[in-house]
Amino acid sequence: MEIVSLLIDFILHVDQYLEAFVANYGAWVYLILFLIVFVETGVVVMPFLPGDSLLFIVGALCGAGLMHYSIAIPVLLVAAILGDQCNFQIGHHLGPKVFQWENSRWFNRKAFERAHAFYQRYGGITVVLARFMPFMRTFAPFVAGVARMHRPTFTAFNVLGAFLWVVGICTAGYFFGNLPWVKQHLEKIIWGLILVPGLLAIFGAWRAGRKEQTAPIQP
User: Fold this and answer.
1) How far apart are CA 169 and CA 174, in angstroms?
2) 80-120: per-residue pLDDT in tens?
3) Could you tell me the pTM of the whole model?
4) What residue segments make up the domains of the chain, in order of their start?
5) Based on CB atoms within 10 Å of each CB, which residue in 38, 59, 163, 186 is the most buried?
6) How far is Cα 141 from Cα 124, in angstroms, rounded to an integer?
7) How many Å apart are CA 59 and CA 67, to the nearest integer?
């Protein structure tokens, strides 16, 4: 329970932790950031690490002169790209094993085939949009790998999504993170960065399920 409490505290007060990291570890903070982003995007069992809020705070610290924007952006970009590639590779490695499974309590081949078809058709935009959704950005590249998405296509959209995610949110933090109103309501903003994309993802999944249930059965 102490680990869970510490993790929640880190997510909600990531600005204080990052400032402490900068003060205590100096340039090593970039390695710490690399590891956090890489693990969140590259290890499918770590979807709960902060992503959007972390990038926003990094941008704010760069805007305050505590970190270097020209160093932070490339480091985070490389971490985000390599993380998704690692996650994709894990799923790709498991893919052949998954194809051999029969229908069971833990695996539904029909659902898997639908996922495969979906990623072949919409995988690119899914990989990009998932960057901005907690939990989804961890599972999307893994599922893309399991679903055998075309690797060059995945890589292209991986790079595009990482660029939009890292540069977009860090730059927003750089210009707006040190405004008095933002600093005063930072915890609410962090909650918003976590909850709003998550609720949108849940709503989208619910609508997709409803649409599938009401679709006419093809003869």
Assistant:
1) 9
2) 999 999 999 988 887 656 655 555 454 555 656 666 666 76
3) 0.77
4) 2-178+186-202
5) 59
6) 10
7) 8
